[in-house]
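Quick log. Single chain, no ligands specified.
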Amino acid sequence: MPTINRPGWMIHGVPRGLLGRLSRLATAAQLSLLSLLGAAAVLLELL
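-> predicted structure:
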């Protein structure tokens, strides 16, 4: 499948909606990782 160079619609052959979903997933993963690290730090402080 060839890459369609239509600005705003596709970036490197990947639909923009998919890209947005991936970035949102990455952000959520980072946030959950940060909260997990914070919880681990708090637990270590309590021990």
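Residues 5 and 34 are 37 Å apart (CA to CA).
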